[in-house]
Amino acid sequence: MRMEFVNISMAELSRTEGLSPRSLNVCENHDLNDIETVVKYYQDYGTFIKLRNCGAKSNLELINICKKYEAFVIVPKSKFVEENPINQIENKIDILTIRQKIILNNLLENRFKELSVRSSNVLLKYFGHNIRLRDIKTLITEQETELKYLKNIGEKSFDEIKSFIKSTEELLDLVSIFETDSEIIIELFNTFLLKEFKLSNSYLAEIGSNYDFINGIPLFKTLMVLIENEILFDHNKTILFKFFFNYYLDYEQNTLAAIGKSFDLTKERIRQIRKKIFEKLECTFSFIRRLDFDTINLYGIDCTNNYIEIDVEQVVEINKNEGTNYNQLFIIKILSILLSKQYELIGAEEDIIFNKNNRLGHNWSKTYLVKLEYSQVFDFERLVNDVEKRLSIRIEEDYSFHFQAYLLDFQICELPEYLENISQVAEYILFNEFELRIDINDYIIFKRNTKKQVIDYVIDVLKESNRPLTVYEIFDIVNKQNPSITKSAEALRGSCQRDMNLIYFGRSSTYGLKVWEKNNEIKGGTIRSIVEEYLRLEKSPKHIVEITDYVNNYRNTNARNILTNLRVDESGIFTFFNQSFVGLAEHRNSKEYAYYENIPKFLGKDIAAEVRSAKGILVKDIAKIFSSRISIQESHMELIIRNLINDNFLYLDNNLIYATNEYKRN
Fold first, then answer.
1. What are φ and ψ of residue 522, in 5° steps?
2. In the CATH hierarchy, which top-level class contains the domain 527-598?
3. Domain made up of 454-519: CATH architecture
4. pTM of the predicted protein model
């Protein structure tokens, strides 16, 4: 006759048999809560290996337990009392390893920070301190009794705290399953991604492939997979991000026109989309703040320093280990989002990643992560612009300032306690941007620069070439003749933009000498500036055909492009009348402009109809017909007709004009 054995819970059995935490959790997570159900499962299936998270070691341990107790007749307790929830929670906490407890405490701290101010204040008042591991038992067992009676909790906060408690239980169950750091990190990370993005297993496998999680979460590889698989951006925005943002080592500058052509969109529309993506980057990547910071592989980056420095070796290491291709700008950007409560991004980031030129200030070479407490009391960007201004003008004699005294000019508020640390950050930035060093006596020295400035070399090159050159052509020649005069074409561009002896041509980064404009065969500036100059020479508005004739003395373009260019101008300089007449907005109310207010809006169809009925007519004759009908000058009518010919509504054949659709029928 077999001996009887009173059925007990697996938690009780673990204390007597020394069952491992992982084996216990495997049972409890599959409702195998007592020895009777565990033995029955073994008798039915003969193994536990198919249960989730059950490894070979746990399987063998459970089989040995079953073999021991299947010899008994297992009988229920005479007075079965369900184990107290408090004891269950205590048991789970007690059997956690030290590392598991540390990780769970970090996760609780992060979840606590995500609570609303009101809810976090309720818990702070309830416990008298930030939430800790030992408070889990109280939270879970007393949530329905004491919490709802707390002052000012409110229904919304009560629901939020209940959700927090539920997620805490889930975290406890999850962390207690795994024994090694890497197992815990992987499981928590995968669970986070599944919840945040509903990723398939193939994406999770791609993130984890060829990477050892013992070093922490591969943050940059994760971002790469999310970007490449169009999870963070839609298809078009993903392409724009990859090819228009200077965040990759193999980045090649693309023009708005080239990108617009591939998308069949205008340059302006591409610019708008690009700006929208940029403005939402922090929101797009904000999910990384919800990761357990201590589990992220940050490659030894010191996140306690006055500023965070990412050198070339660290960029190489990150890309090599994670199989990515990001540059320093992107890594700094991601760190600025991850550490947004401790650091602020300093520098003209938008100008750098889109290769824009700042004509009014400094063209930054990189961005910097500076402690938030310093950037809130000191204006680093104003400092850099001031140094730029001083270095760009002629310095006849060396002069200097005591560095810390000079920095006081850029304080936002009093900063005596921060001055030493801020001076270290400022010195680092000034060295990287201008290669300026503070001397041994703590003075910043602005050295004489009147011997020959960079711009003098540029002027010499243009004089010798006797033709406009791009900034890259100028840099190649200057650098070949005088190495180390300027560090890059981008730095040279800033010098060219500020010098009054040079002219530029549109947005092509092409430059010439101001004196060349005197021969009337060349003119600098943009199309808009050329049109403005032309209109200021005239008392009345001019037709787009006349404007195009003038502009084409210096550029190669057409009326439609010019008119579009003028209409998107946001300065308010130009005013537009019917039939493509353009004037200056400041003269809109003058008597010379009053005549143009009465020009009809719709003439094209009437003119085409008249031409069609005439079956071939001279320009001056059709102009005379319409000028008599609507009281418009014949010369203006001829300009309107020329524009219709340019737009292919009419065509000219042997000095006679015909309607285009009539021509097609023939």
1. -145, 145
2. mainly alpha
3. Orthogonal Bundle (1.10)
4. 0.51
Long-range residue pairs from 428-437, CB within 8 A, at least 24 positions apart, any chain:
428/307, 428/309, 428/368, 429/346, 429/368, 429/380, 429/383, 429/384, 430/383, 430/384, 430/387, 432/365, 432/366, 432/368, 433/362, 433/364, 433/365, 433/384, 433/387, 434/387, 434/388, 434/391, 436/387
* Identity of the amino acid at 42: Y
Q: Spell out the domain ranges in the chain.
A: 4-83, 87-179, 186-331+356-367, 377-446, 454-519, 527-598, 604-665
Helix, strand, coil shares of the chain, percent, nearest 5, are 60, 10, 30
Residues 165/109, Cβ–Cβ less than 8 Å: no
Phi, psi of 645, deg, nearest 5: -70, -45
Return the CATH fold of 604-665.
Arc Repressor Mutant, subunit A (1.10.10)
Q: One-letter amino acid identity for 41?
A: Y
**Contact present, 108 and 138 (Cβ < 8 Å):** no
Q: What's the CA angle centered on 658, arms 655 and 662, to 5 degrees?
A: 150
Question: pLDDT digits over 57-114, tens only?
Answer: 889 989 988 888 887 777 775 434 444 555 566 667 766 776 677 777 777 777 777 7
pLDDT single digits (tens) 570-620: 888 999 999 899 999 988 888 888 888 888 888 888 888 888 888 888 989
Sign of CA dihedral 14, 18, 21, 22: negative
Q: What is the CA radius of gyration of the chain?
A: 37
Strand 73-75 versus strand 4-6 pairing type: parallel
Please give the angle made by the CA atoms of 437, 441 and 443, to the nearest 5 degrees: 50
| Beta-sheet strand order (sheet of 343-346) | 307-308, 368-371, 343-346
Crossing angle of helices 559-567 and 544-551, rounded to 10°: 100
Residue 455 tokens read as: 């711009």
Alpha-helical runs (H) found in 376-453: 380-392, 403-407, 419-434
Does 604-665 match 527-598 at the fold level? yes
Q: Are 650 and 659 in contact (CB under 8 A)?
A: yes
Let me know the angle formed at the C-alpha of 30 by 28 and 31, rounded to the nearest 5 degrees. 65
CA–CA gap between residue 87 and residue 8 (Å, rounded): 14
d(CA 93, CA 87): 10
Six token digits for residue 506: 């549109």
Q: Which has the closest alpha carbon to 352: 227, 486, 475, 494?
A: 494
Side chain identity, residue 259: I
Residue owning tokens 């970007």:
227
Contact 99, 181 (CB under 8 A): yes
CA–CA dist 615, 659 (Å, integer): 8
